[in-house]
Design brief:
This is Hydrolase. By secondary structure, the protein is of the alpha/beta class. The chain has one domain: Ribonuclease Z/Hydroxyacylglutathione hydrolase-like (Metallo-beta-lactamase, Chain A), CATH 3.60.15. It is built from six helices and 14 strands. The protein has a six-stranded mixed beta sheet. Strands 7-8-9-10-13-14 form a six-stranded mixed beta sheet.
């Protein structure tokens, strides 16, 4: 499986491009601030054709480039969980004027937003057949109401399949050694604990985890070392 990551210009957000192989259709996951040109360059270099843009949740740092990326050379639709659909109307409004001003000062231009067209709403336990990939959607609220994990069989080229056999794109639910914050609007600490217990803990140890920020990790490593998973037991 072809997987490449692009780190956004702000907040260190990971954008992923995933395809069965070079020269085929692909999905773009979480296009954050300032990634659109690099996404287009990567697609051209590897002869990839975007089929969809998948969003793990609706925070600005994960969706800021969704509209230009969707409208690239071939128009495609963005996919987001129904509970976070409202965030695509104007994610700038959730930042507050001081943070918007800081972004504008950092990049030297006015922050703008155009709501994407043809948004597809996702549901829990949905299976997507896109770009030759079968991608599972797992609702994991807590960081936001509509946060999801995307799961697929297989791992990126170059990773020994004897050790890892699944890939989980975890957004801001699970990081290497940490989890997403729950003190932002729409966050819920109790919901996050339930998601960690009922969604994250049951993931197989053979899962490669590609988080929304920071380095890749594995479920086996997080189960053994992540302090936020310590003391939790899967329900049932």
């Amino acid at each position: 499986m072809f997987v490449r990551s692009i780190v956004a210009d702000a907040f260190g957000t990971n954008c992923y491009v995933v395809a069965p192989a070079e020269g085929e259709e692909c999905v773009v996951v979480d296009p954050g601030i300032g990634v659109e040109r690099r996404v287009q360059d990567l697609l051209a270099e590897h002869r990839l054709r975007p089929a969809a843009v998948l969003l793990t949740h609706g925070h600005l740092d994960h969706v800021y480039a969704v509209t230009p990326v969707c409208a690239g050379t071939t128009a495609v639709s963005p996919y987001i969980h129904a509970d976070d659909r409202y965030r695509l109307r104007d994610p700038l409004s959730s930042l507050g004027p001081e943070l918007v001003l800081a972004l504008e000062q950092q990049f030297g231009r006015r922050a703008t937003w155009t709501e994407p067209e043809d948004v597809v709403e996702l549901a829990d336990a949905q299976d997507l057949e896109i770009a030759g990939l079968r991608i599972g959607v797992v609702h994991a609220p807590g960081h936001t109401e509509g946060s999801v994990l995307f799961t697929t069989a297989g791992v990126p080229d170059g990773i020994p399949a004897q050790e890892l056999d699944r890939t989980v794109i975890s957004g801001d639910v699970l990081f290497a050694g940490s989890i997403g914050r729950t003190d932002l609007p729409g966050g819920d600490g109790a919901a996050m604990r339930r998601s960690l217990r009922d969604v994250v803990l049951p993931l197989a140890d053979s899962s490669l985890v590609l988080p929304g920020h920071g380095p890749a990790t594995t479920m086996a490593r997080e189960r053994a070392t992540n302090p936020h998973l310590a003391g939790l037991s899967p329900r049932g």
